[in-house]
Design a protein that fits this description.
Strand content: 5-15%
CATH topology: Rossmann fold
Order of helices and strands: EHEHHHEHHEHEHHEH
CATH class: Alpha Beta
Helix content: 40-55%
Number of strands: 6
CATH superfamily: NAD(P)-binding Rossmann-like Domain
Oligomer: single chain
Largest sheet: 6 strands, parallel
Structural class: alpha/beta
Number of helices: 10
Radius of gyration: 19 Å
Strand order of the largest sheet: 2-1-3-4-5-6
Length: about 270
């Protein structure tokens, strides 16, 4: 339901690949809520995905290729975005994550460190690069909002989530550290959303992902939160309704994060009487 929560706001959305992507859902919701935005992804992801279809659905939104591990690409992205809108933006979505170790089937205890560096650079350091570029260019209006997508493996062990768990931990730390400086100097807020396991192209590459989803569903009092519901939450954080929320990791997982054990899970171990 459109309430024009983002009317007049402008932003950048990183990471929409196809209609399974949370970033895709965020773009659709942001457009429905009155926002204008630039869509961006790495050049290789843009060749593999369907981002131009999304751009057309969202009022012919500009599409600007940018490798989020490249300072030059990010500088170009923010410069072209400012030129397009004639000024600053109000929100950024960071929906970027990839692990070569996961893709190549490397176990966490047998990590390839060149791959590990790439995981950290793509999945976490890229947030720092985005924020640094925006900060240096004073690209975001006061009370603007940056949201990055995380997962509870940053705090708890999920064995097959591999080095992405380390990347999410770093992502959340960057959110707190940069969030302090950006908030104090420019009144820009930065948060992460720790989402339920969600069926996306990236998430589906994790070993045992289907089991992750089923387990979380059985543990969560409200069930797993879907991609569209996550997009709704992101929109609330882009809006003026959450002006004083910053430096937080916000769980959006149907209650999974604070449930020790559920009756459904216990029932699987109950002995027949």
């Amino acid at each position: 339901m459109a309430n024009n929560l983002l009317e007049g706001k402008k932003g950048i959305i990183f990471g929409a690949l196809n209609d399974m992507s949370i970033a895709w859902k965020v773009a659709e919701q942001a457009y429905d809520q009155g926002a204008e935005f630039v869509l961006t992804n790495a050049p290789i992801a843009m060749r593999m995905g369907e981002i131009n279809n999304l751009a057309e659905k969202c009022g012919d939104a500009p599409v600007i290729a940018a490798d989020a591990t490249s300072d030059d690409d990010l500088a170009n992205l923010f410069d072209k975005t400012a030129e397009h809108f004639g000024g600053k933006i109000d929100f950024v979505l960071h929906s970027i994550g990839m692990s070569p170790n996961v893709r190549k089937g490397k176990h966490y205890t047998a990590t390839n460190y060149d791959f590990y560096h790439k995981t950290m650079d793509i999945s976490a350091m890229s947030l720092h690069r985005v924020l640094k570029t925006a900060f240096e260019k004073d690209a975001i209006n006061e009370w603007g909002s940056v949201v990055a997508l995380s997962y509870i493996a940053a705090q708890r062990v999920f064995p097959d989530y591999n080095d992405m768990a380390d990347a999410k931990s770093l992502l959340e730390s960057i959110t707190r550290s940069f969030g302090y400086h950006y908030g104090a100097k420019r009144k820009v807020r930065i948060n992460t959303i720790s989402q339920s396991p969600t069926v996306t192209t990236a998430g589906s590459g994790v070993k045992g992902f289907d089991e992750f989803v089923a387990y979380a569903e059985s543990m969560s009092p409200l069930g797993n939160a879907g991609a569209k519901e996550c997009a709704d939450y992101v929109i609330s954080l882009f809006s003026d309704l959450t002006r004083y929320v910053t430096m937080q990791n916000l769980f959006h997982d149907g209650g999974f994060s604070f449930t020790g054990v559920s009756e459904e899970v216990i029932s699987k171990f109950a002995k027949d009487e």
